[in-house]
Each structure stands twice: as C-alpha cells, then as structure tokens.
Amino acid sequence: MANEKLKIAFYWAASCGGCEIAVLDINEKILDVIQLADIVFWPVAMDVKYKDVENMPDKYIDICFFNGSVRNEEQEYMAKLLRQKAKTLIAFGSCAQEGCIPGLANLHNREEIFEKVYLKSHCVENPVGTVPQTRFEAKEGLLKLPEFYDTVKTLDQTVEVDYYIPGCPPPVSLITSALEAVAKNQLPPKGTVLAPPKSVCDECPRKKENKKITKIYRVHKKMPEPEKCLLEQGIICMGPATRSGCGAQCLNVDMPCTGCGGPCPNSPEQGAAMVSALASILGLEEEKDRYTEKDIEELMRQIKDPVGTFYMYSLPSSILRRKVMKK
To answer: pTM for this structure?
Structure first.
C-alpha cells in the first residue's frame, strides 16, 4: 500500500536511558512521527515482549533505533535479533556508536568488576561472597541471568549498522533531521554518520588566538573567560577532535566539550587526535628550545585520568579497545 505507515522500533541496551528521553525532547514533532510511522517495539514505553519481536517476519521493521553498547548476552541477542528483523538499523547515540561511558569498564574484566561491586564496595554487606550467576536453582524453578561479558562492544562490533546518530544523548536537531530524511526517503549512503562533518570548534563562537599554554586546569579549578577558547585557557576541551552537530551547547555555558559527538570524519581515532591537538599547544616557555625527560613528565602529569579524558566516549571503538588483562 502506497500510504502504509513505516514501522519503527526503539531498543535500550547498556546505556543510561538519556537517549530514550531525547526521543521525547523533539516535543510536538513526535506528532509528525506518529503520522509517519507506527512504533511496533519500544520496551521502555510499551508492553511488548521479546517473543513478539521473534514472531515478526524478517525485515518487518523498517527502521530500528538501537541505543546502548553491548555489555551482556541479552543485549547481544537483541542486537542480532533486531538486525534480522529490521531493514535499517541505526546506532542511536554515543553508547551504540562508540561504547561511551559503559565502555570505560574495558579498563577491567568481569572478575575485577564483580569483586569491586559485590565484594569490596563499602555500601554492600555480602559475608558469603555471592556474585551474580547465569543460572540458579531455586524452589520456584530455574532462574536465569544473561552472561556479563568481559568486554563492552559497540553495536557495529556486534552486527552490521546502517547509520549512526552521535551524541550523549543525540541533539534534537540531529534526531529531527534524521526523521525528516526518513520521511522524505532521502537518507544518504549506508554507513553515514548523520551529523555535520565539521568539528565542534567550527560551531564554537569563542575566539581562538593560537596561544601556547604551559598549565592545564581541571574544569572546577578555573573560572574561564567567557569569550576565549577554553583550550587556550588551559582547560582541556575535546572540540578539535569531536564532530559537530550539537551547536556547541556545553561551550555556550562555559563547560568544555567532552567528546560525545564522536570523531571527526578524517580522524577516526578520536583520543589520538585530541592528544595531537593538545601537544601542539602545550609546552614550556618558548625560550626553552629543548625539553628534558623530566620536563616532559611534568607536563604529562598535569593531565589527570588520560583515558577518562581522551577516551571518555570512545574507548571500545578506538584502536586501544580495552586494557590487556594479564593472566
């Protein structure tokens, strides 16, 4: 039928739920979505079971917006199931695209995480040392939990992805643009990130003077000048290495970009790109033409939590992927 509505699905894997709220942040445009499509699967808002998806014909869903990284067995199963049932699969948000905050768990393995959370946390009383098991025989029957994986993966490390909408959560403008492209059947070639190709710096109104810096400040330790580039004031801002599309919202309220838009098109390794950008302006006084090893170490020590700073959103999708765990 020519006027048949599209069938859309939303799924929430390992993420905070902000992407679900972002869908509602399009406000009255949600009415346009209702005119365009029927939502056939959205566990956070509808009473729909996994078996309902399993019973759908293959490619029954026109577009599935999948948010969240793949942390456990259930999420992997749903990623593969929704890939089978959907014609178009969109990695919706930074967790699905890059791994995001859950991906920082790749600095540890399952054993270390369980030990910290269930055995050594100050707020947990666990005298017998119980940790989650995948199967447990109770008097009511067999209880099952999905297996918790050692490694957090992105959606496209699990299944083939057609499009990406970046952000933590995706900005409303990117969501509405994507929906309009769907409505008009004007989606770009598969594999496209549905966001502008420029960097956040290109959207930022702050003045850049190409100044060198000798000191790095954590964001809570300096009151920034409102019109000057934060990076040139010594506050690490991921803007040079981050794709635009957010309107530089954080920078407009004196907060540095933390990188949730993902890498720029020509710099897929976001963390390395930012390290390179910082290295180009961070140094000693200009009259010092040579650095000693101690000088370099002192400069580097100013950067607190390098992985959490440069790979806050992108560790699983980076060339680092995860910490190598020694046996």
So the answer is: 0.92
